[in-house]
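Input:
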Amino acid sequence: MTATRDLALGVLSALIVVILMYMLIGSHVVAIPPTQGQRWLSWKFLTSTYNWQDKALWAGSPEVVTSVLWDYRGIDTVYETSVFFLAIIGGLMLVRDYKPWGKPIGKGMSLISRTVVKIVLVAVPVVAASIALHGHLTPGGGFQGGSVFAVSSLLAIIGLGTGFLLGRGWSKSKLLGFRTLGLIIISSIALAIPFLGLLEGLHAYIIQNQWKPWAPVGFGYLASIPGLGTILYSGTLVFLNIAEFLAVSAGLSLAFIIMSLSREEIKRSGGVEK
Amino acid sequence: MIVSVPLCYVLMALFMTYAFILTLLTLKTRDLLKATIFSAGQAVAYTLLLVLLAAPDLVLAYVAVGVGMYTALFLFIISRTERYEKAYRGDEE
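Output:
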């Protein structure tokens, strides 16, 4: 019985792989040797994203993926962020009556592990901030930076105990506040340009980034800062990346802190799990 | 006829095989802790594959989610339940 089922599953999965590969090769996505040049869609994005000669469709950023995520397909990402927010809210509903406790709980691991974790704990948030703040120039962005930051808080929870973060004031309301702040920044940036267009009587789009000939409102792309020279900030991209970094890192850290609480702790302080 | 294949393709095939073997081990093993670790290994193989496919944006998200958070989430869940999976009825024959 088991052998028959395994055989059937194997044949089925092999069939699926063959069909998928046939479709990929048939539509010239995969080929050996690889196809030279780009297909029309990638060609369009690659030639218009950072095109200083023709700024009609550009995003002002050399990083094409971030431009697609936050400029060309910005509403998708806003929707994705709101879905993530609702998922965290749904998780927090399970412990909605939970009150913060007084003393720190959990001792963490051995002395060697604690020392190593303390060293790594300095490096990981720096990398995370670098990924998020350079998201409009190099690969990376708000979500990637935020998830790397969440890994560092996870390390702290496992290595040093839950009390380590809570003892430094990482309370539920504060993290939720950071998370909501990120979402408020994202929504206000998305609506700022249409609002400005409405006031000025100009044509403008929701979550528009750069100036367009038919929609002459935009965030600009170069900033002159005294002492630092001229820097490229790519319009909305850097602000949206910072806001997403705030939202994702605070939300995931909160989820991990709540998840790491023991059942007794939740029961004792009036959680739902009775 | 000697076909010259770029090293990149050889490495991609290697990492995909590695990921496939680890996925099979994840499905087959009864020890849930081991299964989680195999699954993290599969995520590492996919990360290397994405590096070879020149998709660094995906790598950054995949490393943090696939290796870090996903593994930790499953370890937390396993710590709340039993470590060993019970044999299902199909195996008893």
